[in-house]
């Protein structure tokens, strides 16, 4: 009986630690070339008639984890986001501030931060994700869906060249 209990604890610990490692990988790569990511996203957005959503963040960012969990738990929101945007996650943090890339964008005051870019390379918006939160505890599904719908129905020809 004790042997079974020990195995159960070992398996539970292994599964828990594996999930923790997987959860830490959010897709922000400090070694990635953000200019290459951006150019690839623009080409894909043009081919698919979508916008580009640049997201600044990193695995160190607690709200980036909150955003990741929110999208994982709300498959319909993730699906709509993917239908409207080509998402580019650009690392910003101690490992690489990507200053040359971010210096071309309006300043962000925190992470995650969104910039919306049209396929013609016009910057349409720069916004904090705070407006998509609900009471400081997480993201609001209705706010997020409204955000996506607003940009899905975007006006043509607006913005500043980037």
Beta-strand fraction estimate: 15-25%
Strand tally = 5
Rounded average pLDDT: 86
- How many helices? The count is 6
What would you report as the Rg, rounded to the nearest angstrom? 18 Å
Strand-pairing-aware structural class: alpha+beta
Shape: globular
N- and C-termini, Cα separation: 65 Å
Spell the H/E element sequence. Answer: HHEHHEHEEHE
Helix content: 40-55%
Largest sheet: 5 strands, mixed
- Largest sheet strand order: 2-1-3-4-5
Unreliable stretches (pLDDT < 50, length at least 5) are 1-24
In short:
By secondary structure, the protein is α+β, with helices and mostly antiparallel strands.
Q: Can you describe this structure?
A:
- The chain has 162 residues and is α+β, with helices and mostly antiparallel strands.
- The chain is built from six helices and five strands, in the order ααβααβαββαβ.
- A five-stranded mixed beta sheet has the order 2-1-3-4-5.
- Strand 3 and strand 4 (122-128) form a beta hairpin.
- The longest helix is centred in the first third of the chain and has 23 residues, at 2-24.
- The radius of gyration is 18 Å and the shape is globular.
- The termini are far apart.
- The model is unreliable at 1-24 (pLDDT under 50).
